[in-house]
Amino acid sequence: MDEKKRILVVEDEKNIATVLSYNIKKEGYDCDVAYDGETGLNMALTGGYDLLLLDIMLPRMTGFEICEQVRMKSQVPIIFVTAREEDKDKILGLETGADDYVTKPFSFKELMARVRANIRRSSGEVVRRKEEETARRGVLRIGDLEIDRERYSVTKDGEPVELSKKDYDLILFLAENVGTAFTREELLEKIWGYDGYFGDIRTVDVTVSRIRKKIERDPARPEYLMTKRGVGYFLNAR
Ligand code: CA
Questions:
Q1: Is pTM, for the whole model, over 0.70?
Q2: What spacing in Å lies between the alpha carbon of 92 and ligand 1's midpoint?
Q3: Strand order of the sheet with strand 153-156?
Q4: Beta bridge mates, 30
Q5: How close is the Cα of 4 to the center of ligand 1, in Å?
Q6: pLDDT tens-digit readout, 118-176
């Protein structure tokens, strides 16, 4: 038997935290809860969790701040649990490196589908990366972009580009299929591991705009990560 995957919930509303924790455990995961941001960050950094579920408005430190701090050290999957519509806009504008978000009130079925997909994806990734390390080496070059599959890094004009795991996965996938456009649904399935039903295609848009800010001279007029009207996204063969 595999060891139980461990999830940290950071949520100050005790009744929500209790329901989340109860249901997560029922799904066969271990679950710890922190009720404020500072405690949550400390636990996230030291607890070796497989996934973090972060509320945004928290006492002492916001979910965004936790996410930023954690991202400096770890690629653990992070899902924001947001309270209101406007939080979504905040997420759109922020480059905190979260993998996904769900909006309250959420269906538990949907949340768990996302939790499973993110955990599956990140543990599969560890295995896949090890295999790739020996099987497939080399650098992909597209214009001034270099994607180093051995180091899992991207440079632009020789300068390193800071990318989250999903940013990197998406750009690598598009680079390996350069010139081919994929729908948001296809990308959700291939990069996030979601089936069409549970995925939120805006997740793809958020990730694309985050990547554009990092690699494009003018994110409003992309030269690399292109939108194909009526289809989706592709990486321009330059
Ligand atoms: Ca809260």
A1: no
A2: 19
A3: 139-142, 145-148, 153-156, 159-161
A4: 6
A5: 27
A6: 888 777 766 566 555 544 567 888 888 989 887 888 999 889 998 888 899 999 999 98
